């Protein structure tokens, strides 16, 4: 009998091990799907033997009396092919799948059925839970902000913070003057792209669409709303037309209203260089920018619908300035921009465009923003005039108007504003002469300052935000380009050709000009002049303040200092 029971006892040991393993797995699944415990009792048994569930495998059924069974018959009855198949294929996977399906049904059944407003697009009259739009982000997020010198700052912001709120927060923390010209820039160094975020955009959402190499920069941008300050002369007449035109171009007085009115159909048109997708070649095409998208004509300048093909969509894209156009894309000119989808895209997915001059590029990019955002852009422009305190910090932010500097006369009992430009220039000259006399008198009697006045006048300008030291001509061009190229944008720097001179870099009509400031000596005193000695100043601060009030020999007044901030 020992030989007869050797095989069954061995099989029962195998059954105990397998059942223990399955029971352990069942217990783990039961903890995961505790909500479906009632359903689990109706699932298929894990192991079966001759159609009956094995409950106790430690018992061995006794042999019936007076029965003689051969060893081969016993082995055949206990290890039949059907049994071996069922032992080798436990059914716990099917049970788990059923649990998962039924739990998913329980979850989806708790959601109400939502009518689908667009059944013709999805083919289903009811929206499924997976087709619902994603929830808005909540909580706080960590954002890295970089300044122009490459230094970074980590800021923790709420999920609903806009670009304007973050800029004002950085202005407050960096102790800057808030003149409503600071901007948050989305920068992609590998692609050579950058754009200023609109004031209403959520920073967290923009960061989610950026690649790992993308970063945020904090800098000035004076041209952000230049169109609203000077709309009549912003677009050339040949670029703007109606889609349903009768007499040609739009009247200048209606230009701003037509751009902001969503029911109107203005159109920007003109020739652009377009880079072919996946190639290095460029084609010059006649392009139309409408509210529905950017199109090009396959037949000259024809506007017929059969000749128009879509280049890019406005709704899910943003317009970027290309900073490395000629080097990276072999662009025909330096005035390149691109339309990038609002997702993590590769270089081949970008729509590269190029214009003949800077004014055309600015017009196309501004029109893109106006068509996409419309009245929201104008509201962003108007908000600073109705300033309100941010909820994130209660301390008021300083504000300085560009018209706060005026010529004053304090010769009488009360001060008065000098409105006449000639009288203002005369007062500035008189003030300069009085300063000169005070300096000469201090030289004779001795200066109360540890620094000699001549030495102080030669270094005091280095503390000013508009002075940038020994930067090259190309670096000054880059800084002017980045901060907007508006009239009156300026900076001062050391001269590379004359170590004793300085250079005033000024932007006018989107062109950058340079004026050398030469030192001149009179009665043993050093002065600085921009017009060969006709107007002299004791230091560069006095020179800048004078030309902020008076144009003089310059093409325009100094209005906007080109400023770098350290975070």
Automatic annotation (TrEMBL):
InterPro entries: BPS-dom (IPR015042), GRB/APBB1IP (IPR039664), Grb10_SH2 (IPR035037), PH-like_dom_sf (IPR011993), PH_APBB1IP (IPR039665), PH_domain (IPR001849), RA_dom (IPR000159), SH2 (IPR000980). Residues 265-373 form the PH domain. SUPFAM superfamilies: PH domain-like, SH2 domain, Ubiquitin-like. The lineage of its organism: Eukaryota, Metazoa, Chordata, Craniata, Vertebrata. This is Growth factor receptor-bound protein 10. Residues 139-223 form the Ras-associating domain. CDD domains: PH_APBB1IP, SH2_Grb10. GO terms for cellular component: cytoplasm. It is found in: Cytoplasm. It comes from the Eukaryota.
């Amino acid at each position: 009998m020992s030989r007869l029971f050797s095989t069954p006892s061995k099989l029962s040991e195998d059954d105990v091990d397998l059942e223990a393993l399955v029971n352990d797995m069942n217990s783990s699944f039961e903890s995961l799907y505790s909500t479906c415990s009632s359903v689990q009792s109706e699932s298929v048994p894990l192991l079966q033997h001759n159609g009956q569930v094995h409950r106790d495998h430690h018992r061995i059924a006794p042999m019936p009396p007076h029965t003689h069974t051969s060893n081969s018959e016993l082995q055949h009855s206990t290890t039949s092919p059907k049994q071996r198949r069922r032992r080798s294929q436990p059914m716990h996977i099917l049970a788990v799948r059923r649990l998962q399906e039924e739990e998913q049904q329980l979850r989806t059944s708790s959601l109400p059925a939502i009518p689908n407003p667009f059944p013709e697009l999805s083919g289903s009259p009811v929206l499924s839970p997976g087709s619902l739009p994603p929830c808005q982000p909540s909580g706080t997020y960590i954002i890295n902000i970089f300044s122009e010198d490459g230094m970074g700052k980590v800021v923790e912001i709420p999920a609903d913070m806009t670009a304007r709120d973050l800029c004002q927060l950085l202005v407050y923390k960096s102790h800057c003057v808030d003149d409503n010209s600071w901007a948050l820039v989305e920068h992609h160094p590998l692609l050579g792209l950058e754009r200023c975020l609109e004031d209403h955009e959520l920073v967290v959402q923009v960061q989610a669409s950026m690649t790992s190499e993308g970063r945020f920069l904090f800098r000035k941008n004076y041209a952000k709303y230049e169109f609203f300050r000077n709309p009549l002369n912003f677009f050339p007449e040949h670029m703007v037309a109606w889609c349903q035109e009768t007499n040609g171009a739009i009247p200048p007085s209606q230009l701003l209203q037509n751009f902001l009115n969503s029911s109107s159909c203005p159109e920007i048109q003109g020739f652009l260089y377009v880079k072919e997708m996946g190639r290095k070649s460029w084609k010059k095409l006649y392009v139309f920018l409408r509210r529905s998208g950017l199109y090009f004509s396959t037949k000259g300048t024809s506007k017929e619908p059969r000749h128009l093909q879509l280049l890019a969509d406005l709704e899910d894209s943003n317009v970027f300035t290309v900073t490395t156009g000629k080097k990276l894309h072999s662009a025909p000119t330096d005035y390149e921009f691109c339309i990038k989808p609002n997702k993590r895209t590769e270089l081949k997915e970008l729509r590269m465009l190029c214009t003949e001059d800077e004014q055309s590029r600015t017009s196309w990019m501004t029109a893109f923003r106006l068509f996409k955002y419309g009245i929201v852009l104008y509201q962003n422009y108007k908000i600073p005039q109705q300033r309100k305190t941010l909820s994130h910090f209660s301390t008021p932010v300083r504000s300085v108007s560009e018209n706060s500097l005026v010529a004053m006369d304090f010769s009488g009992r009360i001060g008065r504003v000098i409105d006449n430009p000639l009288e203002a220039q005369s007062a500035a000259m008189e003030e300069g002469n009085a300063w000169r006399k005070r300096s000469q008198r201090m030289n004779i009697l001795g200066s109360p300052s540890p620094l000699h006045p001549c030495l102080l006048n030669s270094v005091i300008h280095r503390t000013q935000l508009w002075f940038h030291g020994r930067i090259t001509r190309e670096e000054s061009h880059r800084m002017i380009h980045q901060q907007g190229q508006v009239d009156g944008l300026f900076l001062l720097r050391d001269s590379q050709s004359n170590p004793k001179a300085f250079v005033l870099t000024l932007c006018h009509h989107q062109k950058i000009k340079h004026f050398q400031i030469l030192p001149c000596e009179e009665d043993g005193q050093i002065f600085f002049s921009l017009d060969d000695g006709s107007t002299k100043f004791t230091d560069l601060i006095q020179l800048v303040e004078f030309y902020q009030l008076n144009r003089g020999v310059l093409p325009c007044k100094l209005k906007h200092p080109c400023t770098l901030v350290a975070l």
